[in-house]
């Protein structure tokens, strides 16, 4: 009995131990599975968000690459194109507050997915006018459009006047002409871009906070850095797509390409601008799909379950099982937060470093946004390059330089353990040397092309003051010409004439791009002329222009890199110069100010300034001023670079003021600032502490639309 009793005791003791082992094994197993599930879920979200960032950066940069195409297709001035470009920021601002506040209460992944669908709908809407406007019509003399009947360009008999001229003379009497020409279709492009801005709104605030809530704390900065890196790749593909589409004729697939009599070098050429928007729209739709299958919540990482910091979503949601007292307490907290709003705003704007840096950023972003928006146009008009080559160069050279500059700025901060004062110096030095390099571009321009009646007289001397009257001369006085036409021909003397009629040409031979004009009276009277013939199309820019373009590219790339180096230090400076509990509020005000005071107005007033340099405006089929056909190269260079440089110089003065305030507030022994005083410039502990906190932020640096800043 004793033996059996001992055996039973041993048996039961073993049985009591085994369940405990299984339970602990089960607990470890479930913990491991939870960890794997958490890591797997956040990585899937990370991949999906990265693809969305790529999609929105691609469509945004593609819009920049099609600025000149849209201008020509819809016959609108640069100022109106600036309004279209700024509509994205308007759409973003319309719902940014609602999305940022209510989005945290709802299913964040699905809101991001819905935003992607709205963004794709806007992208598709931008392309829609192409399918309702009819075929693109450019100005060409009938003999160059594969006509078998030879018509004299110099129309001495009004019965021989081409239909295009008659159309323009009768346009004002035709009530339905404006609608038929589709001159107001640009509104759909504006609305589509507005819709793009609305759809893009939830991606950044909800996506980044979702990663921050559910990622392992030490990995959050790395994950956000990965997303931002992918966002920089998007514009490269956007501009390369713009380069590809610009090579294709606008009506490809709808017309016989052999009948097209203009080439990509012609100022009337319009590429297949709409095709890229369809591709970008499809990519946005694909990017939205994963978010519909992602959960509202992910398992919290073990390292963050006991953390005092709760997720953004949990801060807004009031659980149902809370009693009435807790609900009242929550309402009291909300009332206290609302009451604290104005004092917080006063505290923020009472911070001299913050307000000075905000002013410097607003002015600098005005400079950069205006410069980037019209950079393709400047290269095309100044150096005579095609839209395709321009977009290719920007996408393949400029944007990688920006990405490398951002990375270098973060690396310098980390390598040399730079504090707040050092960050201010680095940011200021980057801006100073960047704009100093920009100053050298004034010497790297091309002279105006010789265009009879616009840049030179018909006798080869300086032009008259009134350009419109100068188009007519004794050599073409016997011709019935219109001053509104733009159908340039290149004379044997190397001078471009606005049209064959204004060149006084009496006969033509051939068709399409191979048309040759003979007996051109104005070509023969030019002082250096040895023949009186001309060919279709404008003459090329001077021999020095290709060399100047090469110099421009080199300086432009170095400038892009230099200006980008200061981005990360400037952002760290912004974060370190405000009290910790005001960081989110300060960043919100900063982003709002940049969008309202730089993103919206800069493209508009830059466009207005560029329009003042136009020498020859096109005319719409139904009357009225169309897109500009010829710019004054020198005036364009001084206006475009001058406006950029003036704004940049003003921003540097504000940056110097920031540095002065920081120096005044810093102690001699340390480059970091004292935290004493209610209105202290920055609240930091030590140089080392500064660096430790900024180390993670270097990888996750973000400022509005940095991926398209060149």
UniProtKB/TrEMBL annotation:
Coiled-coil spans are none
Domain (Major facilitator superfamily (MFS) profile) ranges = 45-666
GO MF, one annotated term: bile acid transmembrane transporter activity
Q: Which GO terms describe its biological process?
A: monoatomic ion transport; sodium-independent organic anion transport
| Keywords tagged on the record | Cell membrane, Disulfide bond, Glycoprotein, Ion transport, Lipid transport, Membrane, Transmembrane, Transmembrane helix, Transport
Q: Transmembrane region positions?
A: 40-59, 80-104, 110-132, 220-250, 270-294, 354-372, 392-412, 424-444, 548-575, 587-610, 639-662
* Primary location recorded for the protein, binned into one broad class: membrane
Superkingdom, taxonomy of origin: Eukaryota
Q: Where in the cell is it found?
A: Cell membrane
Q: Where does the record place the Kazal-like domain?
A: 469-524
Q: Pfam families recorded for this chain?
A: Kazal_2 (PF07648), OATP (PF03137)
What membrane topology does the UniProt entry give? Multi-pass membrane protein
The record's similarity note reads: Belongs to the organo anion transporter (TC 2.A.60) family.
The identity of this protein, by name, is Solute carrier organic anion transporter family member
User: What is the organism field in this record?
Assistant: Lanius ludovicianus (Loggerhead shrike)
